[in-house]
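sorry for the late reply, my laptop died twice this morning and i had to redo everyting from scratch. anyway the thing you sent over, i finally got around to it. pasting the sequence first so we're on the same page, its 356 residues, then the predicted structure underneath. double check i copied it right bc i was rushing
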Amino acid sequence: MEFYGIRFVGLNPENGRKLLLTVALVVVVMVVRWLLRAITRALVRGNTKLWRGRFWTHQGISVVSALILVIGIISIWFDNPARLGTFVGLVTAGIAFALQKVITSLAGYFVILRGNTFSVGDRIVMGDVRGDVVALGFMQTTIMEMGQPPAVQSDDPAMWVHSRQFTGRIVTISNSEIFDKPVYNYSREFPYIWDEIKIPITYDADRARAESILLHAVNRHTLNRNKLGEGPVEELHKKYQVDPIDLDPTVYYRLTDNWLELTVRFIAPDHGTRRIKDRISREVIAAFDEANIQIASGTYAIVQLPPIEIGRFPQLTVTTHNNSDKDGESEKNSKAQEAPNESKREQTARTIHRPS
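ok and here's the structure:
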């Protein structure tokens, strides 16, 4: 192909036809992909129970579209198998060297899908980021970040929200993180977590009454074996051969030097734990006040005082010594001179204040 006498390398009618076919293929696949995703969104709009189904449908559409594009472009441009083998070898070597992170992220995407590591809506910890998964792409995972409980505030990065509640930040993480660090999932087959509340009381308090108050409050606001039912427990046992035995709230004692620490352990949903603990704390405080149970705090008791002796200091006598007799004589002369001056000032004052 020539343009103003310039011959462009590689541009000929055959390549032009292939280029037009490639553009047409890309346009058709992208339009079909957009239509299918729009139909899926319309079908599940307003139904939160189908959000996970929409997510997996979108992932399937994206994967199929990518495969069609790759196979179609290869079929258009490489009709000779020998040329295709040489090209694939060169491209694979170059990509493996230059795009290591991209390839690892893409591999992480398929591992996430195939291994059921997490899904949209799951609450996870991935790559030092805690939160709910809001999107999953070929290269990155998007998470709505949440805060950290006080027990893990020293972790990096530290949070200003001291509980498992959203901070308002959207964090994107490379999918390759699943190969470097573990992924913690709060919401997988068993969307519940165990949590604890620790309350110290004095040793002379009514321990049985305090334990009863804690169990009553926790049973009102959290879950137990009866409220959970057999479905979640059977699912957990069926997949992982795990049978959680402490599904009912329990109070544990721990002896310390200053107080008796009561720890109530309970099970709660993976979302909304802070509100549950707030309601429990309010109810426990009110019941403790009625039962006259004091919450212990760090105090120091003085059990023995050192001996103290009280006595009188000896009287001190201060004497002043003159350096010379001349100093004494000069002092007397100055006093003698001041006396007539004082008498004159008194006479003047009486004259001024005499009535007319």
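The chain has ten helices and ten strands.
thats about all i looked at so far, will dig more tmrw
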